[in-house]
Amino acid sequence: MNLINDIKHIIEQSRANATRSVDFCRVQMYWYIGQRIVEEEQGGNSRAEYGKGLIKELAKELEPAYGMGFSSRQLNFSRQFYLEYPKVNALRSQFNWTQYRALIQIHNKEKREYYELEAARNNWTAREMERQIHSQLYERLLLSTDKESVMAVARGHRQPQSAAEFIKDPMVLEFLGLERKAQYYENDLETALIDHLQDFLLELGNGFTFVARQKRLLIEDDEFFADLVFYNRLMRCFVIIELKTGKATHQDLGQLQMYVNYYDRLIKTNDENPTIGILLCSEKNDTLVRMSLPEGNNTILASKYLTYLPTEQQLISEVEKVRSLIEK
C-alpha cells in the first residue's frame, strides 16, 4: 500500500534527521569547548605552557565523568577545531564530528577546502571522506592537472573540460582486497570491480553512472567486448574502461581507440561529447603511451592502478617522474 510506504518513508526520514541533528549538536559542543579553552589560554601568562597544562587538567576532571570523548586528545582537537573554524555559523550541519576531526588534521588550507567542498557536494560519509583523504585524492588529481583547475571545479566555478581533469593517475583500488601483484586475470579484476561497484564509483569521481560490463560491439562479422562502460553526466559522454593486469602496450591502446571510435560513430548522439577511453593497467611506460597516441589527444588515457594505499613519498615520486617527462 502507498500509505504504508509513505509512512515508512516519513519515519525513516525523521530518524535520519534526528541522527543528523544529534551529530551536529556534538559538533557544536566541541566547537564551544574549543572556544572556551582558547579564551582561557589567552588569559594565561605563558600561553603554550599554560594551555598544555590546562587541557591535561580538564581531561582529568572531564574524562572520568563523561567518558573518552573528553580525553586530552579530544580536547586538543576541540581547541584546534575552534582555531581552524572560528565562526560557528559557518559550520556545515551535514558534517559530523568524525568528519570535522579529519578535516582539521589537514594543514594545507586549499587541500582542506577541496575535501570539505567535495564531501558536501557528494554527501560523503565519514568513512568515504577518510578514504579519499588517505588515498590522497587531491594529490593524485594534481598529477593530471593544475591546482587552480582542481580548486575551480571543487568550488563549482567551472566544469571539467577534459578527461585528464577528473581521471586519477594512479587509481587506488585498495578496497578490492587484491594482492600487490598481477598474478590474476583481467576477468578477476573486472569481477572484483563490479562486486565493489559503489567503491569504484567513489574512486572514479563525480558524475559517473554504470552502463555495461563486457559490452558487445559487432563490427561486420567480428565481435569485440568492451570491459566496462560508464557514462559521465558532467562531461556528458560515455567512458570506456579497458582492464590490463600487466604492462600497457600500444596494441592495448589501439584496441581501446577502436572502441572509442565505435561509440563516437555509432552510439553517441550529436549533442553528446566525444567518448573517453581509459586503459587501466598495473604498469605503463608514459613515453610509449604518448608515442602511441596522436598529438593533441585528450580522449584516450592510460592510468596505473594500485591495489594498496600509496604513501606520500610514492606520490611525490610519481609527480617528479611526470614532470621530468614533460620537461624533456
From the structure above, extract its key features:
single chain, 328 residues, alpha/beta, six-stranded mixed beta sheet, 13 helices, 55% helix, elongated
Describe this entry's structure for a reader:
There is one protein chain. The protein is an alpha/beta fold and 328 residues long. Helix content is 55%, strand content 16%. The protein contains 13 helices and six strands. It has helices at residues 2-42, 47-66, 72-84, 97-104, 109-122, 126-134, 137-144, 147-154, 186-195, 197-204, 250-267, 286-292, 312-327; strands at 171-172, 208-219, 222-232, 237-247, 276-283, 300-306. It has a six-stranded mixed beta sheet with strand order 1-6-5-4-3-2. Strand 4 (237-247), helix 11 (250-267) and strand 5 (276-283) form a beta-alpha-beta unit. The longest helix is centred in the N-terminal third of the chain and has 41 residues, at 2-42. The protein is elongated, with a radius of gyration of 24 Å. It starts with a helix and ends with a helix. The relative contact order is 0.08. The model has no long low-confidence stretch (mean pLDDT 85).
Shape: elongated
Per DSSP, the total helix count is 13
* Largest sheet properties: 6 strands, mixed
Strand order of the largest sheet: 1-6-5-4-3-2
What is the terminal-to-terminal distance? Answer: 68 Å
Structural class: alpha/beta
Proportion in β-strands:
15-25%
What series of H and E elements makes up the topology? HHHHHHHHEHHEEEHEHEH
CA gyration radius, whole angstroms: 24 Å
Helical content class: 40-55%
